[in-house]
Amino acid sequence: MAQHGADFVPPFQPVQTMTPQQRLIHNALPMDRFLNIIHQTLPLNDIPLLPKTEPSKSVAETKRGVRKKTVVISVERQKMEDDSAKLKDSWINTHNPSYREDAAAVREYIERKNKEDAVEMEKYKEATKLEVVNNAKTMFFHRRDEIKNVNKCLLEIEAQYGQGTQQNHHKNVAAKWEAHDVAILKGELAEEDRQAENERLQKLFKRKQMKEDTDAMLAIINSKKVGHDFDLLRKQTAGIKQYNEDLKKEDEAEKRLQMAAKEAQMEDLEERYRTVEKIKVAEANAEDFQKLLRHENVKRKVSATKNLVAYQRRRKR
User: Fold this and answer.
1) Cα–Cα dist 112/37, whole Å
2) How many domains would you assign to the chain?
3) Contact of 172 with 165, CB cutoff 8 Å
4) pLDDT tens digits, residue range 114-143?
5) Contact 237/214 with Cβ under 8 angstroms?
């Protein structure tokens, strides 16, 4: 039997032969199903994420000539329906900005894990070719009555797990940032991460300072005590508000840049796809042309042979 990683559970292994660690992993909820449950248990967001567009209608004619109405869903509507991830993330995107990074990390982890598991599975299949075939017929046969309730138990576990995670979401986020700070103190972050972290902290510190200054000035203005230059204070307050607005504009511009980069990437992909399609069509046309040439060549040879035979017969006469 080949050695496997700690997270890899070979198929057709009965529960009795597992170690406690393996049993935990065997019964664990997959991350994608867990995320799906989380999205379902979170409260819905009142803010509409995308504008609703009415599907455009067109009239198509059938073969018999009868005019038949068919609804063609518009491109925007189709995009809305397909992009379910945006709709699922809507609550978190508006309440917890750091979740997008968590979700990206989770997706990356799932992808990497699937690849590693596929490699392990190939090794396992090579090591146990005959054993799996022989054991597959009798495995779990003595536990067939217990397995009937597995689906129900899984649903209950999923519901409880999802509920608990929703309640402890803020604790999980706090723990994540605490681990992040520990990594910073130990110096385990990469150079790019360190630079990004420094920029983030500087921006946060600047915003916090500005907010404190604004609150102090507003308190002075509202107290209406004698001895303050209120015009100067108002000017400074307006400057701070302007700074906050500029920060917001910077954030929006950054988001727009990201969206533009994504759109450019999609356009590039579509262009490549169209190029490939054109090449395929050109190859097919070239093949058809070759077939036509061969066909014409055969016809020419047949007619030449017929003419030759007729000429020889005329000569004989």
Assistant:
1) 22
2) 1
3) yes
4) 888 888 888 887 777 766 555 555 555 555
5) yes
